């Protein structure tokens, strides 16, 4: 059998693009939130929608996986759940209510830039000029797609949008730093955070909104979609990708969310895309692809050249004629 060092890198290198593609399904699912909310859900109850997106699915995953946090994860999981869901969802809806959808989506697209800065401070990663530059290009592309010439700006909405992007960016960065407990899979990990985020939202819904009247079949279908495909399934894929891929490259996949939202608006709702918007699509997709070019090396371990150098040093150290090497005693039958 060949040594593990010669077998490991190639299969992992081949699977890295697949891991990126699977992780990208999460922000693509989140891109359906806008059309589901506007076409199926009762109006003026964004907090209740956020609650239904997090708490039922989180509790279901906890029951199915039969895993509860232990030790320090009794406080880490609520912190991550509050940042990724409990704080992010309400801020997102405030921005969506006070700003045009395009402006709110563009503010959310700033998240990769925030993650890039937090990765240097929190994770002690070396800053990547390549990904930082393409993150800026991606934000410009999203702006061309979703911003309208007559877009109005509201101060509170802008602050909410930026705070929401910062909240999830910090949550993504801490998720990368803390990882997950040994033996805890992505479903249980997502369940902890969704349940924690939902518990944060529960008193807000009770005090500010309550249950919307007249929930029909379409609304039920919308809540189920947001809680399953846009909830625990998407977050399970997302957290799995964060654990295996560079955090900045993973955050750049979030640009897919407003792109998918704009595409659905054109295909389903009949919204038209101007030439500048089509150019923005191309620019944002180029930034997404460019930001993933070297993502695979984090998932595949040491590079072959590094492995060859390590192997050569080990062979030289163990050779009988090498100065300073230790001669192993001969085995006796």
List the helices and strands and how they pair.
Elements: H1 4-7, H2 9-30, H3 33-39, H4 46-65, H5 73-86, H6 88-98, H7 101-108, H8 111-121, H9 129-146, H10 155-178, H11 186-208, H12 217-244, H13 247-252, H14 256-267, H15 275-291, H16 296-300, H17 304-318
Helix pairs in contact: 2-12, 2-14, 4-11, 4-12, 5-10, 5-11, 6-7, 6-10, 7-9, 7-10, 8-10, 9-15, 11-12
Summarize the structure.
Helix content is 74%, strand content 0%.
Provide the descriptors you would attach to this structure in a database record:
333 residues; mainly alpha; 74% helix
Walk me through the structure:
By secondary structure, this protein is an all-alpha fold. It is 74% helix and 0% strand. It has 17 helices and no strands. The longest helix has 28 residues, at 217-244. The two termini are 24 Å apart.
This entry's quaternary arrangement is single chain
Determine the number of helices (DSSP H or I, runs of at least 4 residues). Answer: 17
Portion of residues in helices? over 70%
Q: Bin the strand percentage.
A: under 5%
| Secondary-structure-derived class | mainly alpha
Mean pLDDT: 77
Separation of the first and last Cα atoms: 24 Å
Sheet with most strands = none
User: Could you name the ranges where pLDDT drops below 50 across 5 or more consecutive residues?
Assistant: 1-8, 296-333
Shape: globular
Total count of strands: 0
């Amino acid at each position: 059998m060949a040594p593990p060092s010669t077998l490991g890198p190639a299969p992992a290198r081949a699977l890295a693009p697949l891991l990126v593609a699977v992780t990208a399904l999460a922000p693509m699912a989140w891109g359906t939130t806008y059309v589901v909310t506007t076409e199926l859900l009762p109006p003026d109850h964004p907090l209740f929608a956020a609650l239904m997106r997090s708490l039922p699915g989180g509790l279901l995953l906890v029951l199915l996986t039969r895993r509860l946090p232990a030790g320090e994860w009794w406080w880490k999981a609520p912190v991550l759940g509050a940042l990724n869901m409990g704080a992010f969802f309400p801020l997102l809806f405030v921005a969506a209510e006070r700003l045009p959808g395009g402006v709110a989506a563009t503010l959310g697209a700033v998240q990769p830039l925030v993650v890039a800065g937090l990765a240097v401070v929190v994770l002690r990663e070396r800053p990547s000029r390549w990904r930082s530059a393409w993150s800026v290009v991606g934000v410009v592309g999203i702006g061309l797609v979703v911003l309208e010439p007559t877009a109005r700006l509201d101060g509170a909405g802008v602050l909410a949008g930026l705070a929401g992007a910062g909240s999830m960016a910090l949550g993504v960065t801490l998720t990368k730093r803390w990882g997950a407990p040994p033996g805890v899979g992505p479903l249980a990990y997502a369940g902890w955070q969704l349940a924690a985020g939902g518990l944060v939202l529960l008193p807000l819904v009770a005090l500010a909104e309550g249950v919307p009247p007249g929930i029909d079949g379409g609304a039920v279908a919308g809540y189920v979609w947001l809680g399953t495909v846009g909830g625990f399934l998407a977050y399970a894929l997302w957290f799995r990708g964060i654990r295996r891929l560079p955090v900045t490259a993973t955050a750049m996949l979030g640009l897919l969310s407003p792109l998918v939202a704009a595409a659905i608006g054109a295909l389903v709702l009949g919204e038209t895309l101007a030439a500048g918007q089509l150019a923005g699509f191309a620019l944002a997709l180029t930034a997404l692809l460019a930001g993933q070019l070297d993502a695979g090396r984090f998932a595949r371990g040491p590079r072959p050249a590094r492995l060859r150098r390590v192997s050569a040093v080990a062979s030289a150290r163990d050779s009988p004629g090498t100065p300073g090497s230790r001669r192993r005693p001969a085995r006796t039958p």
